[in-house]
């Protein structure tokens, strides 16, 4: 795989790109502004030279020509005309010196008279130069007609000076486009790097991170972090598997001595001593089996597959009922259809049928978790009521007992390993049942929580229906 750049190099590239894009945009903008100002200045100077030619008969500047008309200029159909009268003081209300009448005819615009002003002083020459500058500023195939005093009308042709073809290209829009493109590119790179870290963080928070490798990608630092975490997870998983292997071997090897102890304990004539010894043997083997089950639950080697959660629950409940234990399966609670209307109340409708609650999960692990919850309810609450419910995202298993009373401290620590409630008394067990349930729920993208019921305690296991 190709080596990705690190954050330090990417940040350096981003800074250089931003500086280059900003410099290019500023250069284009300033060069465009300078070219336009030069274009307008040339038109202004041409206007001054045109006035000198009209007043003194000198030669016209380069790019200008004039044609004498026999009659007043006529306005073509659809064209617009702007009329301006310039006196010697460049003020129409002050009749000093000669009068210069101008007509500007354009096919698509009326020239703003406010723009036709003296830029170099109050002279008539400056006013005419302002006119030619305005013609250069607004791109239009305009025709300029001039009439000094009461003389004939002259048509001034100056397309090489103020025409659209001679106008410089306006590079301000490309300058803005460069800035926007650079900004989009930089934001895209930043979003890509940020997205890679966000994906990595989400995968790291995922409960399945123990069973699946984290994505390796993005910048070099993130790739190195992902590889280090994957190596650590692999070592942790290998340690768990070795622990399970050792415990399995110990459980197997202790089977023969435990059997011999049972046989020899049967020879003890004292019934009380024999019973205590057998209970010690059962507690020892039960503890080993519990630790082995908990370790296997942590590893979670069982594959996920499609299953009917309700069918699984019905089978587990039926097993308890077959041996006469007080376990029953309740229907899912009814739900309201929604808000009522002006003419009808909101009505409750039954939840979907049980067999419709499907999910992806580990059937053996789920059976073990449900059995542990039912065993706890029977052990500490005399009976168990099981409810299966769910929505589009989650499935919920609830096991409610009767008579179990636990403190807040008990509820907070029950899901820990080797933790038992204050009402455990002399009941058998090593305190791993709920820890196993909590681990299995986490492996299914869910959680184990406890709710106080009217007559006891409800253990609620929430499972993600599409977790793997």
Automatic annotation (TrEMBL):
Protein's name in the database: histidine kinase
Q: Which reaction does it catalyse?
A: ATP + protein L-histidine = ADP + protein N-phospho-L-histidine
What is a single molecular function from GO for this protein? kinase activity
Per UniProt, residues of the Histidine kinase domain are 249-463
**Sorted UniProt keywords:** ATP-binding, Kinase, Membrane, Nucleotide-binding, Transferase, Transmembrane, Transmembrane helix
Alphabetized Pfam families for the sequence? HATPase_c
Which spans are transmembrane here?
A: 7-30
For this protein, the record's CDD domains field holds: HATPase, HisKA
Q: Which domain of life is it from?
A: Bacteria
- What's the EC number here? 2.7.13.3
């Amino acid at each position: 795989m190709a080596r990705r750049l690190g954050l330090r190099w990417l940040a350096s590239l981003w800074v250089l790109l931003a500086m280059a894009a900003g410099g290019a945009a500023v250069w284009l903008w300033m060069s465009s502004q300078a070219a336009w100002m030069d274009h307008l200045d040339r038109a202004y100077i041409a206007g001054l030279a045109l006035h000198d030619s009209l007043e003194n008969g000198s030669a016209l500047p380069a790019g200008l020509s004039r044609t004498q008309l026999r009659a007043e200029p006529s306005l073509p159909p659809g064209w617009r005309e702007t009329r301006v009268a310039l006196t010697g003081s460049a003020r129409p209300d002050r009749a000093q010196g000669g009068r210069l009448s101008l007509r500007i005819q354009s096919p698509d615009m009326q020239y703003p008279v406010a723009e036709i002003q003296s830029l170099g002083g109050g002279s008539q020459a400056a006013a005419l130069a302002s006119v030619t500058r305005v013609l250069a500023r607004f791109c239009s195939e305009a025709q300029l007609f001039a009439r000094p005093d009461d003389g004939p009308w002259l048509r001034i042709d100056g397309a090489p000076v103020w025409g659209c073809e001679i106008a410089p290209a306006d590079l301000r829009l490309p300058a803005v486009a460069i800035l926007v493109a650079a900004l989009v590119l930089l934001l895209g790179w930043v979003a890509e790097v940020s997205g890679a870290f966000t994906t990595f963080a989400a995968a790291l928070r995922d409960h399945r991170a123990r069973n699946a490798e984290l994505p390796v990608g993005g910048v070099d630092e993130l790739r190195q972090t992902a590889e280090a975490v994957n190596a650590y997870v692999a070592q942790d998983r290998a340690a768990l598997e070795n622990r399970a292997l050792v415990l399995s071997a110990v459980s197997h090897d202790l089977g023969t001595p435990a059997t011999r102890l049972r046989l020899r304990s049967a020879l003890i004539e004292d019934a009380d001593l024999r019973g205590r010894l057998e209970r010690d043997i059962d507690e020892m083997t039960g503890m080993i089996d519990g630790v082995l089950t908990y370790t296997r639950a942590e590893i979670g080697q069982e594959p996920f597959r499609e299953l009917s959660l309700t069918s699984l629950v019905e089978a587990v409940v039926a097993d308890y009922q077959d041996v006469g234990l007080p376990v029953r399966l309740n229907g899912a609670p009814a739900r309201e259809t929604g808000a009522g209307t002006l003419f009808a109340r909101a009505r409750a409708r039954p939840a979907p049928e049980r067999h419709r609650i499907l999910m992806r999960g580990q059937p053996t692990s789920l059976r073990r978790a449900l059995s542990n919850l039912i065993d706890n309810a029977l052990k500490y609450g005399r009976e168990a009521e099981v409810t299966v419910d769910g929505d589009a995202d989650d499935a919920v298993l609830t096991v409610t007992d009767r008579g179990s009373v636990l403190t807040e401290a008990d509820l907070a620590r029950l899901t820990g390993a080797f933790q038992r409630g204050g009402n455990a008394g002399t009941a058998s067990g090593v305190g791993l049942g709920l820890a196993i349930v909590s681990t299995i729920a986490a492996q299914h993208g869910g959680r184990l929580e406890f709710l106080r019921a009217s007559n006891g305690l409800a253990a609620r296991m929430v499972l993600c229906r599409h977790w793997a």
